[in-house]
User: Fold these one by one.
Assistant:
Number 1:
Amino acid sequence: MIEFNNVSKYYKSNVGLDNVTVHINEGDFVFLVGPSGAGKSTFIKLILKEIEPDKGTIKVRGEDITRLKKSGIPKLRRNVGIVFQDFRLLPKKTVYENVAFAMEIIHQPKRLIKKYVPQVLSMMGISESAGKYPDELSAGEQQRVAIARAIVNRPKILIADEPTGNLDPDTAWEIMQLLNTINMKGTTILMVTHAKDIVDKMEKRVIAIENGRIVRDEFGMYGYMQALQGTDVTFDTVEVQTRNLFRTRFKRGGGRR
Amino acid sequence: MRSFGYTIKQAFIQFVRNFNLSIVSIFAITAMLMILSIFFIATVNINRAAETIKGDYDSIQIYLLDETTEDDAKMMIEDLKKTDGVEDAYYETREQALKKFKKRWGDNGYLLDNLQNNPLPNSIIIKIGDLEKADGIAKKAGAFGGVEDIKYYKNTVDKLLKMTRFIQTAAAVVMIFLIIVSIIVVANTIKLTVFNRADEISIMKYVGATNWFIRGPFLVEGIIIGLLSAAIALALSGGIYHKAVEVFGDQTRAMLSMDLVSEKVLVTNLAWMFMIIGISIGAIGSIISMRKFLKV
């Protein structure tokens, strides 16, 4: 779905990405973690073709986007939804209008807008807020609107840039459940985050970047399951193993106390 | 077509939301256009004056003595027509000359009706194709018998041409300068409206709107500002010119024996000019101001 092959991006004073090769498959849920300035934003900007790599090739849905002309960018982005930490809703538009706006600007017919927007709002659990303005909503609700806007055009890929950064833990977890649901329906999700607890709890693939290089690429539970496909080992054994792992950790922690 | 409707609607919404700013721009551009129109009016009339004067002065008039007959004159004309640099040569009786005068004075021609007798002589009029050869032609004509006087104005015409050329160039420079200033004014106005909507624009970019789709409303907003300015400037300069013709029309007629360029012609020209300039100023201004914001 997303392929980085030997991608480097250098800025004047620092390194964005340094010879990064990584493949994200269709249907994956991937966390991108790392300290600030490690190259996470560069990674995302490269996928959206906001910036160009200095070296290497980037493929999105099989298409080499480093060769894509400027005029092809809108089409690329229509297949990539994006959610930000600060929601970026339009304050003068209602919830419904904010979501419909994403369809309007790519010339979707009114008929489809009327059909899809309520569907997505209901999926996000904010149907009752359709007529409200963003400042009348809680942070969690605002992020739901932002996610609704990002997926209403049915992108194959959803990029979430610290989507839980401004939310309390409970709300953050609700948002994660929503993202999980979206992922289950087939959308590839790439989520940038600092929230270690969420990353641990979700047990998904984790790509860690530091100084522009990938320092860790762990597959988590989902990754194990994929890796185990076709082997004798079953999900149950993995689950048992993981549970045991947690238990030992817990015991160790308890021991110290 | 749906997106066209959206563009127009958004443009008007933006225009109204930024009403104060829009008004300031309109004032500024109207002022520019007014100065421009003053230069234009001056240039057009100076050109016309130059043409009129050149029309008189690219000819050599040979005043004939009263005793020179028309037959003598015709022989001279035959001879002159063969001369290099002569485009045409013809005989003009004193009566024809007077009629011409009256016509040129237009409404004031009646002043000449009171003349006791016609003071003008019969003459031969030579139209010169090449002004550089006027000297030689004049010399040759002077050699004929029966000639009272020879009038031609090479130096005057030269000076006049130089002057008009200078004025035209100066006006063109000033006009270009003014147009650039206007574009900057519009660009800055629109930039402020763009600033207000930077978030919206970046969201549009992320969701996959094309640049032209985003630019559209701002472009139309710029064009609305440009066209409104053009309309106001046109009304004002039309009115001013109307007054100017009333006040100075008679004087120019008396001094240069020429009418000022007619109001209708001038206003039509100004209308086209303002419309084109207004649209381009608005369009170019808004495109310039958007450039940075569309880079996302």
Note: The longest strand of chain B covers residues 86-92.
Number 2:
Amino acid sequence: MSERFVVKSSPHIRTDVTTQVIMRDVLIALAPTLLLSIYAFGWRALLVTAVCVASCVVFEYLSRLLMKRENTISDLSAAVTGVLLAYNLPVTIPIWIAVVGSFFAVVVVKQLFGGIGHNFINPAIGARVFLLVAFATPMTNWLIPQQTDNGVALVAGATPLALLGQGNLADMPSKWQMFFGLRGGCLGEAAALTLILGGIYLLVRGVIQPHVPLMFLGTMFVLALLMGVDPLYHILSGGALIGAIFMATDYTTSPSTTKGKLIFAFGCGLITMLIRVFGNYPEGVSFAIFFMNILVPHINALTRTTPFGVLKPEKKQAKEGQA
Amino acid sequence: MTFGKKTLSGVHAPHNKHATEDCSAVRMPVPEKVYISMQQHMGAPCKPLIAKGDTVCVGQLIGSSDAFLSSPIHSSVSGTVTDMIEIINVNSVRAVCVVIETDGKQTVDESVKPPEVNDTAGFIAAMKASGLVGLGGAGFPSFIKFNPKNLPEVDTLVVNGAECEPYITTDYRTMIDAWEDVIDGIAILQKYLDLEKAVIGIEKNKPKAIELLREKTSGMKGVSVVELNDLYPKGAEKVIAYETTGRVIPAGKLPNEVGIIVSNVTSVAFISRYMKTGMPLVEKTLTVDGSAIAKPQNVTAVIGTTYRDLAEFCGGYKAEPRLMISGGPMMGTAVLSDTYPVIKSNNALLVFDSVDESQLKETACIRCGRCIRTCPYHLMPANFEAAYQARDTAMLRKLNLPLCMECGCCSFVCPARRPLVQTNRLGKKLLAAEAKKTGGKS
């Protein structure tokens, strides 16, 4: 035997899409929103985002080092978590709170449970909920961007959802204003347009499936109609779009089958609207995704696929057995 | 959600067929020595009928078995048996191998004459004697496939011309160069097996073959050509049966259950030639391609030709070979050396000068669900992996692991480069070991 070749399992060719490529696509999809956010909220928006990304990556690196595990920062998932967390913070957030949030997201929610693929809630959502409860005041210190002749001016004020909750319809921005940006809220809530553009990019690249965003927003739309509130306003305001497009579609914390995804997204939309209309908090997207994340293992177990050629005799037999 | 024809999922694997698709098969001269394995098919190995020192002729029966699931083996050359050795086949099974030093004359054995076939039983007997096995790659003895218990209920022949594996173009060349044999073979099968309909399924990336066979079969009763989309693996038996006829083969059953016989297009062409000449299956056409092959082409070689001789005929290695695949890149086996011999079900030899190390770097599963979405049989590879790692055999059975055909789609799409197909194989072994321990009871 003269030569000895490499022996490995088939298949011998693979797609070019790796975890890193997927995460890079998510970062690209999030980029336009950052630009608009800087335009609306000023350079501090960039600072907050940069701090979150940097601290997430550093915490990921250090925790893997400490746990003597392979370094995983090159998969870019920590960077994605950083951007998403920043997009869930108001521009006024003290920097140290952003760092605490990054620590919670990457170390507590993600790495303590085993790293990428093992966290049971979305790290950015986990951190946001933690910060919202722990630092209620700085987390709701909003600045409202207003277009003036000399550019954008920031004034203290309430978010559209808060206004909606108070029934203060007079001060609310128009739907066009909400669509193109310049509304109060977190960094990533600055504009609907850029979020939707990012979502379309992810759909085209095959990173996400349309089921979750459409079901999430569709459920909100229908429920808003049933509850007698303005559906478009609810979809355009708060974290609905960033939640439906970027957070609820997180692979690890959403079900793996199409049926499961639909159930999951329906639950997200339902809880969001219940909190917004009946709850004490003006915003419910992060709590909704948080709750549904926890249910994912059960949804997965209940929505296993039926293999090709396998009929579903068990169910029939079980029914006949009972009768 | 689906309008019109339903298709099963799969992957867009790069076809890479350009190097050999315009190349009619070239006949390779008989090498000095051939190594004929006694295990070239699914089922029991054959016992050699000859001894060291015997002289043999082309087409002479040299191996047979009493077992039902087996297929006889014939000498592919004329010459002298110099040795009987034990080898490990490409599929890791030990088998006796007959070494024959060829005399170059290729004297045909006197037993080789066109079979006299008058009825179905005679046809099945002829098929058994021909040594034909499924040439698409699985190597299932054809006479068993053509003789299901419910033959009167079987009404449709599905001719598999999908050739979904990248690189391989031998079935395509059969359809282009030997279309007469193909349509004659279909007529023979229709006649002796009393099959009303015949459907030829061809992937749409072979428009010339689709057009040619449509034209040539237009006058034949009940014969049609179906264009399949080019989503790998359209050539898998259950997939092509479903997409050409709409019939679903139940899990764990064979195509005859739903009135279908599936046969590879090159097997069908062989049947026509065998009925005319009586020459059993002693040669095979392979696509020889890959970055380390100097002259990629389709080669017709006698069974038992070593991969090294085959590569040398194709101009030798133009670069140091690192990876040698027996078969296609999706389901083929990476072999350790080039000393393996060609067997009946071989349809390609691919040799590459490099291995993409980045493809072997495993990272954590991110639970993206791509493997589940892409599985043509709607299985859940990610869950198989988790269950296998926990050695949870009950869960592996519940998830229907044995239905996995190892087509490779899940591993192909996995962004974390998990070895999903390999895990499925290990899982099946685990289930088999458990079944052995419990005596088949689960």
Note: Chain A has one domain: 19-302.
